Structure formats: C-alpha cells, structure tokens
Amino acid sequence: MKKASVLLVALALAVFGLAACGDDDDDATTDEATVEETTAADGGATIDLSAPADGSLAFDQTELTTEAGTVTVSFDNPASLSHDVVIEDEAGEEIGATDLIAESTASTTVDLQPGTYTYYCSVPGHREGGMEGTLTVK
Ligand SMILES: [Cu+2]
Question: Cβ–Cβ contacts within 10 Å for residue 120, how many?
C-alpha cells in the first residue's frame, strides 16, 4: 500500500514536471520571436549569403548591393568544409567577419558607409579558389 502511494506521487511529479517544462519551452520560443522582430524593426538590412553543400569553393552570390547603415550578413554553410565571410573596406581593412563554420550558420553585423567592399572566405586557398565577391553600398 505504501509503495503504491509513493509510486503515484512520483508519477504525478513526473507528469507535472514534464508539463512545466513544456510551458517553459513555449515561453522561450515566444521571447525569441519577439527579440527577432524588434531587431528587424530597428532597421538594418540583412544579406543572406551561402556556400554550396558540396563543399566547392564558392559563394552563391559574387555581387551584393545594399543600403548604407547597419547591415547583418547572415552566412549559411551546409558543407562539412569550414568557411567564413570576412568583409574588407576599400582600404583593405577588415571591418567584420563571421565565425569559421561547417554545417552551420553564422552572422556578423557591420556599419557600412557608401562605397565598395569586398567579402571573402579567409581559409587559406579559398579566396583564391573563388570565394570572393563585391559588396556595393549605396
Ligand atoms: Cu572557405
């Protein structure tokens, strides 16, 4: 009899615990969505850039155009070969870079003035292999 009661209490706690976790997850999801919307509403363009899944040395776009201001470069690398995106201004100064990633996504946010910028992958040989493009800021 006692054992059965303990079991019931344990079961009830387990069910309650699971339900509570579920609620927490829902709240977290809602919070994240709110943060993303707020960021977007603050202004600032997002540029999507990706590398091919087969690991070849290329970006999906070699010519990008955006407006001056805060710009987030969102990089998607589905390949198992690591890549990153480095942004350089006309003087050759590095102004931003994503993390080096494989089978993942990363982003970097930069403040851009009108002009011409270059973006490339900093892994040795990749820029030379074709992972380079021009970013025009108007
Ligand atoms: Cu690369």
Answer: 20
Q: Does residue 26 carry a pLDDT above 50?
A: no
C-alpha span between 110 and 120 (Å, rounded) = 15
Distance 57 CA to ligand 1 centre (A): 6
Q: Which residue has 């919070």 as its token pair?
A: 31
Q: How many angstroms separate the alpha carbon of residue 49 from the centre of ligand 1?
A: 13
Span from the CA of 10 to the centroid of ligand 1 (angstroms):
53
pTM of the model: 0.70
Rounded CA-CA distance 94/137 in Å is 16
Q: What is the pLDDT of residues 61-84, one digit of tens each?
A: 999 999 999 999 999 999 999 999
Find out whether 84 and 119 touch, Cβ atoms under 8 Å.
Answer: no
Mean pLDDT over each residue of the chain, to the nearest integer: 81
